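User: Modeling request: complex.
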Amino acid sequence: MLNNIKCYLMKKEDLDYFKNHLSEFDEFWKFDLLKSEFENELTTCIIAKNEEDIVGFASLWEPPYEIHINNIFVKKDLRKNNIGSILLEKLIEIAKEKNKEELTLEVNINNIPAIKLYEKYNFIKVGIRKKYYNNEDDALIMNKKLI
Ligand SMILES: CC(C)(COP(=O)(O)OP(=O)(O)OC[C@H]1O[C@@H](n2cnc3c(N)ncnc32)[C@H](O)[C@@H]1OP(=O)(O)O)[C@@H](O)C(=O)NCCC(=O)NCCS
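Assistant: Request completed. Predicted assembly structure:
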């Protein structure tokens, strides 16, 4: 297990890093999607670093009255080192600081690692969106009460 993981608000220079390194983290997310996420004023993006190395990313989206986890991803060769947990704990902390009552997310119903991660933090399954991903896979809707 890596033991010096810290989370930071994402900066422009971190975004630039992902331009050439995103494939080391995630297949689904493309750089333009990450950039629009970073530039969206309703979104909070954080990164996890091990010393100086970026090892993970996560984001929260905050439309009026709600707060959602948009994504969490960890560098492929460093998964199962608690980095996803540290990022998720930080997102929960930020949502609580914003006095939100619950945190919501959608996850591909076949994404067992992510579902297990969310269950570890007491997210519960509250619904399903049929064929949400590419008109094929269902999305599981999960919530966590914050108060
Ligand atoms: C999901 C993801 C972020 C987890 O990150 P991680 O750093 O590997 O997670 P952690 O090491 O903190 O593990 C936390 C828990 O998740 C579960 N978990 C993680 N990987 C798992 C796997 N491959 N299989 C089953 N459970 C797994 C375990 O319950 C684990 O708890 P434990 O350590 O107490 O056993 C990572 O797999 C990832 O980046 N996936 C690709 C992107 C993605 O699908 N993101 C989710 C979008 S909704």
